[in-house]
Structures are given as structure tokens and as C-alpha cells.
Design brief:
The chain is α+β, with helices and mostly antiparallel strands and 108 residues long. It folds into 2 domains: 70 residues, Wheat Germ Agglutinin (Isolectin 2), domain 1 (2-Layer Sandwich), CATH 3.30.60; 37 residues, Dihydrolipoamide Transferase. The chain has a two-stranded antiparallel ribbon. A hairpin with a 2-residue loop joins β1 and β2. The longest helix is centred in the middle third of the chain and has 17 residues. The radius of gyration is 23 Å and the shape is elongated. It starts with 19 loop residues before the first strand and ends with a helix. InterPro entries: E3-bd_dom_sf, Lsr2-like_dimerization, Lsr2_dim_dom, Lsr2_DNA-bd. This is Lsr2 protein. Keywords: DNA-binding.
């Protein structure tokens, strides 16, 4: 017995049939939206004045900057240890509160 799976796109704007998934980014956030040909054209026409005056950018550098800002595991362990010794609330896992990191950096 054969199985056939169909992927049907629904226009995220008006609920009709979509023909494509459009990707775009703004303010460092990346989005995808399923649109009909007509709505995709409207989106592109609305963005065109800005796109024609913009320069292309590689999204990788911003990701690199974020990863450089992120705290290494070793430093996280050091901050957690310091925070506990100071009596500050800090979780065993996950992200360390910015206020705790800031106090650690001020102390060092």
C-alpha cells in the first residue's frame, strides 16, 4: 500500500491558499510567512523602497557577536560559585540573571 502526504500551504495573512514561504529579517529577527502570490507581491512591493536603498548583510557576524557576548561554561560556573558565596539567588542550570553577572563583573 502506498502513502501520499500532501503539504498544503495556508496564507498566514488571509487564510487562503498560499503558494510560497517568504523569508525576511528585521532588527536581527528572522521570519517566515506563507503567502499567496498576490500577498507575496504586496509584501515585496511594500519593502522594495527600503530594499533598494539597503545593503546586503551576512547574518553570521551578528550571531558571532552574540556568541562572544555569551558567557562560557567555565565563567558561568565561576559566576555561580561567586553568587552563592555572596548569598545571591542563582539557578544551578540555565541562564544567569543579568543583574548577577553585572554584580560579578563590578566585583572583579
Amino acid at each position: 500500500m502506498a502513502t501520499q502526504i500532501q503539504k498544503i500551504l495556508i496564507d498566514d495573512l488571509d487564510g487562503g491558499t498560499a503558494n510560497e514561504t517568504v523569508s525576511f529579517a528585521i532588527d536581527g529577527n528572522y521570519y517566515e510567512i506563507d503567502l499567496s502570490d498576490e500577498n507575496a507581491k504586496k509584501l515585496r512591493e511594500a519593502l522594495n523602497p527600503f530594499v533598494t536603498h539597503a545593503r546586503r548583510a551576512d547574518p553570521t557576524p551578528s550571531r558571532r557577536r552574540r556568541s562572544q557576548r555569551s558567557t562560557s561554561r567555565e565563567k558561568s560556573a565561576e559566576i555561580r560559585s561567586w553568587a552563592k558565596a555572596q548569598g545571591l539567588p542563582v539557578s544551578e542550570r540555565g541562564r544567569i540573571a543579568a543583574s548577577v553577572v553585572e554584580r560579578y563583573e563590578q566585583a572583579h
